[in-house]
């Protein structure tokens, strides 16, 4: 899933800078490996420095060692390393990277896929990110980040197995979230007062959104802000659908995806106020049929753990993304019972949509025990959240959401042209709807944000939910990175000194964010209708801080470099693809492939095009030859492109292998 991975990697790179490094005198690879193996696992997160004095945080459980000018961090699983190397005398960035690879492995064993500029940040300049072309069967990602500070280069090589990278993504964010040049102190807005959002300051935000739309090619963005209990702005830019004249406005519906999670936990807070349950009530006490693949983990899950991303349950989305046609809420709960944790309870941040779905369905069952769990959840959300807050255009009904003033989803095709996205795929969230099936508008979400800022009170001063139950959702349940914690469907970010509470949402062609600064009475919402909207929504948070506190201008450059890197990578991938698919490869495929977890694929030729029918959706396919000699088939449907199937053989059976970071699905020919 190259496009999906590119987006997620881009977010990690923004938050954690991607794996940085240090090198001077070369060390043979064997010496580096021995150094890492000989080190003892760290008993706690440990503030550390590179040989040049650049600061970072080494995570608990990792092995930390230094040999010469190389600083090594090895993940607990072994074989996945972050190598930080300081290069004092390199002539330029290329020379610094070459020196780092010489120290680590003699030279880079993988061909360079793409080198992209990265915006200056946190005292680092002349930054560049390099991504190397690995083969799917290697199941690892390799990259390097080179940047300059204090007259020297720091290179970070990340050589990480995919499973480790996803499982320990929060720890990687810890490493890079505090990787700062020697003597540098990050900008902080702690103790400062937010400026009024005057027309001049609002013009800065509007200009930012307009320029970001041009760079990302997103067709439409709606956004709005409140300050000190008053609406400052609510409106939109661009169009609801490409080729159509209707404009985006503050009442345009967008799919808000995972922002639904925070609203789901608000429904749970109402039930806590009604004393129908507590945050510490065992999940099985409320719904005895609730179970996970691990009985031990099942027994530990309290209500507050259902949506904390802290139980060790991994991201495992392909099973419902590819097999949703006949999936019901009850079936979604049964699917959760087949899934195994991959880290200890409370040990690591691991995001699980099925677990979040369980939170909503259990809450719905508590509210309306006589109803089927899907219907009960829908009714509980309407009665306890949407109606009391006056969110009249907010719905969980996919069909109803398509009527009237609704934005359509868009995504780039394989040639980088923004086009209509595959809408059917967004139906996949319906059986998992507490995790992300909400549709809403800027005006409606601002009502929700205003209530959060008012700590549970409505505009007329009446208490809607108790302050205690509301704020419990923000309490940290697990660490995401050095300055970021996850509660119950809400993140609290203090990277710039002042807390920002927020959550984002991402579905095909829809990317959104809602955020508020509790200490300053400011809240904002941004909704987009195009892939790469994730760039806009993530950098909008930074831009808002710049506008409120006269911060260093970083967001504009970050959007420009992230968008360029994305489209450059898409262009590189296009050169590697054969479209239509290689007929010699297509001729050797079976007519049908099956896997119990992800379903069946019907294979056909339509003219000269190779075509896969997944049942729920279909796509033309491309082929790509990988460096290790294997062949990949890749989906081309906009919004769900880059889903990779490796062609293979198991005994006398032809196979297709599909992977996410921590799971593998082998589809057998029939």
TrEMBL record:
Q: Which residue ranges does the record assign to the Beta-lactamase-related domain?
A: 206-532
Instruction: Please give the superkingdom of this protein's source.
Output: Bacteria
The cross-references to InterPro entries, in alphabetical order and at most eight, read: AmpC-like, Beta-lactam-related, Beta-lactam/transpept-like
Keywords in alphabetical order, please: Signal
Is this entry keyworded Ubl conjugation? no
Signal peptide per UniProt = 1-33
The reply on keyword Electron transport is: no
Q: What is the protein's name according to its record?
A: Beta-lactamase-related domain-containing protein
Q: What organism is the protein native to?
A: Ideonella azotifigens
In the record, what lineage is assigned to the organism producing the protein?
A: Bacteria, Pseudomonadati, Pseudomonadota, Betaproteobacteria, Burkholderiales
